[in-house]
Specification:
The protein is α+β, with helices and mostly antiparallel strands. It is built from 8 helices and 18 strands. It starts with 7 loop residues before the first strand and ends in an 8-residue tail after the last helix.
């Protein structure tokens, strides 16, 4: 049934109904949603308004959520209820074909800053590798007729990610209010459609992100001076580092500070107590060098297992700087993983500029 939103003010113990009124115009609601899309319940970043499709139609608002999924917000306006549902489905059929780069290009036409920086400003993190993996279609209206609501319910049963949100405009002693309700609960999931294509960023086959914890257990100054990266203290910390291939270009990040180095691995990972590094062109045991950290995780007197041990990968630095010269800008990629593929083009571009990498290094 069509949603009717009613509100009462409790005045001296008695409920007094607020008066329903018409919105001045639906453009005002569109303005409100662009300024604060969290009115819909979740944080969203608006990346387009009146977005033109290849079919000469215009999407009212296009947004992205913290997981990189797109949201179409289409106001009913003067369209018939069935027409607006057909239109939002048409938009979805086009948007699902957009690649990550095409989404970012659209965003940067609307935003006054790089997409990555705007994303981090809203969500407090860099964009995920996968953009436009899922799609959400939302009809924004004051009401829908019974037939249209049945159509929305039917489509949702078949996995179409469509919903309707209703806004009521209320007045009370000169004050104005907007009240919101959803046709279907947002916790009520739809069935995922099969055969979804990946929208992850392409990987160049070379660049890796490495998280180097500069703490009581390991020292970035050691790694910078002697040419290595390391991680350990448990399988979760070391297993991704141990998987780094020889010849990988590593972009080293100190948590909470930023990027400090770019280099190339030239030997497989080894346990700290067996690791060798190059000094003046000759291999030497790392454990015999003068170090600022112990690189041990087992209690004193106990042997370290492979799982618990610190693991070390030798690196030939292209550029390596002290921790107090770490570089980071909003929107640049960061992760808790010790090592992972670095796909984000924005981060790679900023690192190349900052570290003045030559075309050969690139």
């Amino acid at each position: 049934m069509p949603v009717e939103m009613r509100m009462w003010r409790i005045d001296q113990g008695d409920p007094k109904p607020l008066t329903s009124a018409l919105l001045p115009d639906e453009k005002t609601l569109e303005d409100f949603l662009e300024k604060d899309p969290s009115m819909l319940g979740d944080r969203l970043l608006v990346i387009g308004r009146q977005v033109r499709t290849p079919y000469n139609k215009y999407i009212d608002l296009l947004a992205v959520d913290a997981d990189g999924n797109l949201h179409v917000l289409e106001l009913k306006k003067d369209k018939t209820p069935r027409d607006v549902i057909a239109q939002v489905l048409d938009y979805g059929s086009w948007l699902k074909t957009l690649t990550r780069d095409e989404v970012i290009e659209q965003a940067e036409q609307h935003l006054s800053q790089p997409f990555e920086a705007a994303f981090e400003a809203v969500f407090g993190q860099a964009p995920p590798d996968e953009i436009n993996g899922d799609l959400n279609l939302t009809v924004v209206a004051t009401n829908l007729d019974n037939s249209s609501e049945r159509i929305v319910d039917y489509l949702r049963e078949f996995g179409v990610p469509i919903n309707a949100v209703f806004f009521s405009y209320l007045e009370d002693d000169g004050r104005r209010y907007l009240a919101r309700s959803w046709h279907a609960s947002q916790e009520e999931s739809t069935t995922k459609a099969p055969g979804k294509k990946s929208k992850r960023a392409d990987w160049n086959g070379r660049d890796w992100y490495v998280n180097f914890g500069d703490d009581d257990e390991r020292s970035w100054e050691d790694g910078r001076r002697l040419g290595f990266i390391s991680a350990g203290g448990g399988a979760w910390y070391s297993q991704t580092l141990r998987g780094l291939p020889t010849g990988a270009r590593v972009n080293v990040y100190i948590p909470g500070q930023g990027y400090v180095a770019v280099g190339e691995t030239f030997a497989p990972a080894a346990r700290f107590d067996q690791a060798q590094i190059l000094i003046d062109g000759a291999w030497a045991p790392l454990a015999e060098q003068q170090l600022n950290a112990p690189y041990r995780h087992a209690p004193d007197g106990e042997l370290e297992t492979d799982e618990l041990a610190e693991w070390v990968v030798p690196v030939r630095w292209v550029e390596a700087r002290p921790a107090d010269e770490a570089f980071r800008e909003p929107g640049m990629f960061a992760s808790q993983h010790s090592a992972c593929k670095l796909r984000q083009e924005y981060t790679l571009k900023r690192l190349a500029e900052h570290f003045d990498l030559s075309e050969q290094d690139d």
